[in-house]
Write a structure and sequence with these properties.
By secondary structure, the protein is an alpha/beta fold. Helices cover 51% and strands 9% of the residues. The chain contains 16 helices and 10 strands. It has an 8-stranded parallel beta barrel with strand order 1-2-3-4-5-6-9-10, surrounded by 6 helices. Strands 7-8 form a two-stranded antiparallel ribbon. Strand 2, helix 3 and strand 3 form a beta-alpha-beta unit. The longest helix is centred in the last third of the chain and has 24 residues. The radius of gyration is 22 Å and the shape is globular.
Length: 426
């Protein structure tokens, strides 16, 4: 199948919105190889394009600390994607995307309060590895400024950093004679200051002026606040159709697609509102990791019953190991509410209900730990003795919520519709 740039794909979707054939693309946080396989199988069967969105904490250069997802750096991440695409006979459209790239986007850089010059240099180094590895879309997000914590980063500062980073990436891309890549700008974080349509249009207009002056491309996506907010394992926000539609129409004036972040755990009604609101793409990440954790817990329950029935003679410790490692990871703090953010590991260990909640929230952060991988393999082996394919169950379990989104977003057949549009323009 011909390779279509993400910019061309989005332009085609913006045109399809006018004819009632629009769709909302799905950006999937790559929490594991199982999730990649589930995504490719579904996109293959339903004929839709897929985006894998990796944050710097998830996938990054080894010298910058690597990533918690399978220990992937940019090169090994791309290899895994290509290998699994081949395994699943996927030959559709897929896009590898940097989610929240730029300065201070690794937790350590922010916690260390790196000075702007050093943080920008590390952000650029990470982007260069993305570009050389063949990423299709780079999110330029310079708003995680530790020196502006609790305050709004001034708009002009966001614009100047954004332009500097796009200019750097374009220079490095062209120097290597690499194909066109897309850019995503803005942020769902309120400290980015981009909370209203008016401010956002000012941002896009100013950005356009600066980019045109330097002969740089306009972004493919802008990120806008549509009311979504993820806390724990629920959608704690309320999808705002009117705000989303206003932002989408504003973005379309500049031939840019609106991207929604924090789209996890949305109800069916909200999901179905996305296509008529003309949102071009939505990012979903922790929900699919949580679904994989839940699949392992269900398999552990089956394993326990088979053990009690005498069908298998031993059982894994997969649930206990996942539980302890999830709590110790402390990555759940990002998703907690109010004072729970500051709970100690010891406090959680003593509270069974809270421990179970943390497992649900943060189990997926531990999948790459050797102890966890060993117990998952033991689980699979034990279940295989009873003719249960554990990994197949996990992959199919992850597919369920992805399928829900794909159906609501009118994604079936979208790849064919995009390719027809691209062909018509030639």
């Amino acid at each position: 199948m011909q390779k279509v740039s993400i910019k061309s794909a989005v332009n085609s979707l913006l045109e399809l919105q006018k004819t009632g054939e629009g769709a909302t693309m799905l950006g999937i946080g790559p929490m594991s190889s199982n999730l990649l396989q589930a995504s490719f199988e579904l996109a293959r069967d339903e004929d839709f394009p897929i985006m894998f969105i990796a944050s710097r904490n998830q996938v990054d250069m080894d010298e910058l600390g690597g990533g918690y997802v399978n220990g992937w750096n940019q090169q090994t991440f791309m290899k895994a994607i290509n290998d699994i695409a081949e395994l699943t006979n996927f030959n559709g459209l897929s896009y590898v995307c940097r989610d929240h790239g730029g300065p201070w986007q690794r937790d350590k850089e922010r916690n260390d309060h790196l000075q702007e010059e050093e943080a920008m240099a590390l952000g650029k180094k990470s982007y260069l590895a993305d570009i050389e590895s063949g990423f299709d879309l780079l999110m330029i997000d310079p708003t995680k400024d530790p020196f502006e914590r609790g305050k709004v980063v001034p708009l002009e500062k966001v614009i100047s950093r954004t332009v500097e980073l796009i200019e750097y990436c374009e220079q490095e891309r062209k120097a290597r004679n690499l194909p066109e890549i897309g850019y995503e700008v803005g942020t769902e974080e309120t400290n980015g200051g981009l909370t209203s349509t008016e401010v956002y249009e000012t941002f896009v207009m100013r950005l356009q002026e600066e980019l045109q002056e330097r002969d740089l491309p306009m972004p493919t996506f802008i990120v806008g606040q549509t009311g979504t907010l993820v806390r724990k394992t629920i959608q704690a926000g309320t999808f705002n159709f009117n705000n989303a539609n206003d932002l989408a129409e504003m973005a379309k004036k500049y031939s840019v697609g609106l991207k929604e972040h924090n789209g996890d755990y949305l109800d069916d009604v909200s999901l179905l509102e996305h296509v008529p609101s003309n949102i071009t793409a939505v990012n979903v990440a922790p929900q699919y990791g949580t679904e994989e954790t839940r699949a392992y817990i269900k398999l552990a329950e089956v394993e326990q019953r088979l053990y009690e029935y005498g069908i298998i003679i031993e059982k894994s410790s997969v649930r206990d190991v996942l539980l302890v490692q999830a709590i110790k990871s402390e990555r759940w703090r990002k998703w907690m509410e109010d004072d729970q953010v500051n709970l100690s590991v010891d406090d959680i260990m003593k509270d069974e209900a809270l421990s179970d909640e943390i497992l649900d929230i943060a189990g997926h952060y531990t999948f790459n730990q050797e102890e966890v991988k060993e117990e998952i393999n033991r689980l699979y082996q034990n279940l295989a003795e009873a003719n249960i394919n554990g990994q197949r169950f996990v992959i199919d379990h992850i597919k369920r919520p992805i399928r829900d989104y794909a159906e609501a977003f009118n994604l079936k057949g979208t790849t064919s519709r995009i390719l027809k549009k691209v062909h018509d323009h030639k």
